[in-house]
Amino acid sequence: MIQSLLIANRGEIACRIIRTARRLGIRTVAVYSDADAQALHVRSADEAVHIGPSPVRESYLVGGKIIAAAKATGAEAIHPGYGFLSENSEFAAAVQAAGLIWVGPNPASITAMGLKDAAKTLMQDAGVPTTPGYLGADQSPERLKAEADRIGYPVLIKAVGGGGGKGMRKVDAAAEFADALLSCQREAISSFGNDVVLLEKWVTNPRHIEVQIFGDSHGNVVHLFERDCSLQRRHQKVIEEAPAPGMDEATRAAVCRAAVNAAKAVDYVGAGTIEFIADGSEGLRADRIWFMEMNTRLQVEHPVTEEITGQDLVEWQLRVASGEPIPVKQDDLSINGWAMETRLYAEDPAKGFLPSIGRLDTFELGGEMPGLRIETGVEQGAEISPFYDPMIAKVIAHGATRDEARKRLAEALDDSTVWPLKTNAGFLVKALTNPDFAAARLDTGLIAREGDALMPSTRPSDEALADAAAALGKGGGLAGFRLNAPVREEGVFLLDGEAVTIAYDPREGAAVRQEDILVAESGQVWRLMPFRAGGAAGAEASDGAILSPMPGRVIAVAVSAGEVVAKGQKLLTLEAMKMEHSLVAPFDGAIAQLNASVGGQVSEGALLVKIDKVEAA
Question: Are 454 and 430 in contact (CB under 8 A)?
Fold first, then answer.
């Protein structure tokens, strides 16, 4: 068994790997950037090495620094986690060339499955069913158009080096093909440096089914059943579950057998996932499930597979990398109950899911609920920086049935309190309780179809506000407050800075305390505080006050003080989490105040621009 391990990653996956390694008696080494100097994974490891500035291209993506850290600390092996360098065959080869153990598949397997067109050809040769399409060497617009006409519309254009929803275009009619092809190729060159595309038949009522496979260096390959990742937003997974709803035993056997054959075709060693697309218009059928791609690493959603099988996939990775065979035989694996996972992000659904960065003053997830598992790389008091993915936790629930797991997961999110950062918890609760999702009427377009119906409330319920107002009035907590108690008074409070009137039970006339309270409901959190006339907290911004919607950096200022502006005119642009957000004038007016300059850092809610209305002549 490996005795010392460097984890070439950060956040929750680094913490998750460290936890299993510690149980196995393996010494762990963490790496960290400037932004992660105080991170949980750094303090959890036995040793930690600084590898550079905060941007990933100067730290976590620099393979040479990571290998040097492993050599300097005497680590025997490197585990890449997922993301970053986990599917970089050159890095894997460099790790092995340095005399270190690579906890992952052979570099040749990563290369074989790295390009979608080559992987699809390889799978066809191995007898794995693939989606009808075209992946030929002739990339002329004329040939691609002819092939699209042959396949039949709608058709999907997909960049061979793509991922994360980029480099993909759906074409509904022949007349749209030429423009869609050019757009797809431009995005592919920009994102991946490769404009080669393949064509696939667009699948109606698509479901995303994937199979967890595992191979060892002794020629063994097993599967650990399937996961359903159909609930997606903009091609990004939102809720994952195992097993897949509606999967009968015959279909399961066929799709899992195809996944094992796919892994054997590339002599696969370690953890991997074979992803399939299914046409669910007539339920899940073996003849309507096709290979899509392979992920040559551990998946973000691997905990749901662990929950239904009782296995530790990280332990398997470490044992197999040490030369041991897979710990169990295929016949020893079975499905126990149901598991669901969702990804909790520091982002604001009400503002287009903009990232929310800053300090986690309150971070409480789910409580001590049975069947609940939390994977996180942060803790209360941690800083969420703009340099990395804003996922702050994975919340996993296990139950005897799908409905039990679903309700348990929704309840855990409902009971979570994160402040002052915004999260997508309210959106996730809405998704979990959506009637179609609850009834397992799934496809990848469900979230897009539901639209605003999944957006969380922007205000607590009257009952929740009355509870909080009464607690403030008494100066105590919420314990013992009677929901829907007789209302005898109205009071003015500030709800996230906005003055609101709340009817509540004054609790025998106790004076309102000068303090605040967090109101948590359905995964959403607001701050309620007494109105203090004349104080800063009670001062309401008049029309024309342009506040920062998020913490970030000003990257452009398009106006100057005193300038007359028109409604909708761009005023300035903010950047956070590598995303840009433009602020525009709400009406015609003149710039009375300008409190922003290029390069300046601003906090959420900061007054950036004040516009005075211009009276008509």
Answer: yes
Note whether residue 137 is domain-resident. Answer: yes
* Calpha distance 147→135 (Å, rounded): 10
Q: Quote the DSSP letter at residue 313.
A: H
Of 215 and 479, more confident? 215
Residue 114 lies in a domain: no
Q: Is the dihedral of CA 78, 237, 344, 547 positive or negative?
A: positive
Query: Which stretch of DSSP H or E encloses residue 505?
Result: none
Domain end: 313, 336, 359, which one? Answer: 336
Last residue of a domain, one of 172, 201, 230: 201
Catalytic residue of the set 16, 233, 252, 297: 297
Q: Is 319 a catalytic residue?
A: no
Reported confidence tier of residue 424, pLDDT bands at 50, 70, 90: very high
**CA angle (410 as vertex; 405, 413 as ends), nearest 5:** 125
Query: How many domains in the chain?
Result: 6
Average pLDDT over residues 389-401: 96
AA letter at 605: G
Over the stretch 121-155, which tens digit does the pLDDT of each residue have?
889 888 899 888 898 899 999 999 999 999 989 99
Rounded CA separation 433/411 (Å): 10
Distance CA(39)–CA(217), nearest Å, equals: 35
**Distance of alpha carbon 78 from alpha carbon 74, whole angstroms:** 11
Tell whether the model's pLDDT for residue 475 goes beyond 60.
Answer: no
Q: How far apart are CA 475 and CA 121, in angstroms?
A: 69
Q: Let me know whether 311 and 237 are in one domain.
A: yes
Strands (E), 306-353: 338-345, 347-348
What residues contact residue 427 under an 8 Å CB cut-off, 6+ apart? 349, 454, 455, 456, 523
Strands (E), 69-216: 77-79, 101-102, 133-134, 155-163, 166-171, 197-201, 206-215
Give the closest residue to 142 by CA, choosing from 167, 98, 173, 177. Answer: 177
